[in-house]
Amino acid sequence: QVQLVESGGGLVQAGESLRLSCTVSRADFSRNIVGWHRQAPGKQREWVANIIRGTNTNYADSVKGRFTTSTDNTNNTLYLQMNSLKPEDTAVYYCWIRIGVNTYWGQGTQVTVSS
Question: Ramachandran region of residue 55, left (φ > 0), alpha (ψ -120 to 50) or beta?
Answer without folding.
Answer: alpha
